[in-house]
Design a protein that fits this description.
alpha/beta; Diaminopimelate Epimerase, Chain A, domain 1; 6-stranded mixed sheet; 12 strands
């Protein structure tokens, strides 16, 4: 059955109901109404009821979490919609912002700050005017539909999030097939690891995309100091720190003939070198 309505609560808007609606807009293109459910809305299979209604029944299109017990694990309307779309596990693994969003919506700012191990005022310092404006405009709307400016922005957000999650697994598989973990021996006898991605044909639009997530997925992230990947603007390679590793300082290779760029802060460099052995030499020269 096609979906002809997305229904969420009126009044103040939060990140979880906004993003949940973004996902559903991207999937179904149905108008959004912000009001309390009427009799029959929860049983209407052509309507999706989000963050209101007191029921989680995805088979009937109902995605509320407020009826869960007080000690239930932090989970919000966005979580429920992601589960329904089969994207929750990947989102939990690859979207660092999701778990804090779940905590904030279910435990509030104080509980989230305590869980993160930071002072309460840090939470306020992370607020973005983008979030404030989008949520404020969403809260003011009683109905949004295709063609409305905010609705189309929400469609973009939903499309980008779904596209990221659906293609990330493909990207990780690609990295597993083509990438190589190299271990280099420094002059002082210490060794360090670097993730190397060779140039392939066709070349991905963003050759470095997903490298960090791949290392997370195989449990190597803490052991890898640097990344080497094809330079999409040239025929050579980019060299960069992984997780801002302090032992790689690329200003040390700025004077090399085949290094045409080294950032003044030392975290990235670009080289015309293409041979793996030469790339290893440059990495070793950058090691502190």
């Amino acid at each position: 059955m096609s979906i002809d309505l997305i229904l969420t609560h009126p009044g103040g808007a939060h990140k979880d109901d906004f993003l949940a609606c973004c996902l559903l807009v991207s999937k179904h293109g149905a108008p959004i109404e912000r009001r309390e459910p009427e009799p029959g809305d929860l049983d209407n299979l052509a309507a999706l009821v989000v963050d209101v209604g007191g029921e989680h029944a995805p088979e009937r299109g109902n995605f509320d979490h407020h009826q869960f017990p007080r000690d239930h694990e932090p989970i919000c309307a966005l979580s429920l919609v992601l589960m329904h779309l089969g994207l929750y596990d990947d989102a939990k693994m690859f979207c660092d912002w999701l778990e804090p969003a779940e905590w904030f919506d279910t435990r509030g700012a104080n509980g989230t700050a305590k869980w993160l191990g930071v002072e309460r005022d840090i939470i306020s310092k992370l607020n973005s005017p983008i979030d404030v404006s989008l949520l404020r405009r969403f809260a003011q709307a009683s109905r949004l539909q295709s063609g409305d400016l905010l609705y189309e922005v929400m469609r973009w957000v939903g499309e980008d999030l779904i596209g990221y999650l659906e293609t990330l697994r493909e990207r990780l598989t690609y990295i597993a097939q083509h990438g190589e973990l190299m271990e280099l021996q420094a002059a002082d006898g210490e060794s360090f690891k670097v993730m190397f991605m060779p140039r392939t044909d066709p070349l991905p639009d963003e050759p470095s995309m997903g490298l960090g997530r791949y290392l997370d997925s195989i449990g190597e992230s803490e052991k890898v100091a640097g990344l080497v990947y094809p330079d999409r603007r040239g025929s050579g390679y980019g060299l960069s720190r992984h997780n801002d590793h302090p032992r790689l300082e690329f200003t040390r290779i700025d004077g090399e003939d085949d290094v045409h760029f080294a950032h003044a802060r030392g975290f990235v460099a670009k080289t015309s070198a293409t041979e793996k052995e030469r790339l290893k030499e440059l990495l070793l020269a950058a090691w502190l």
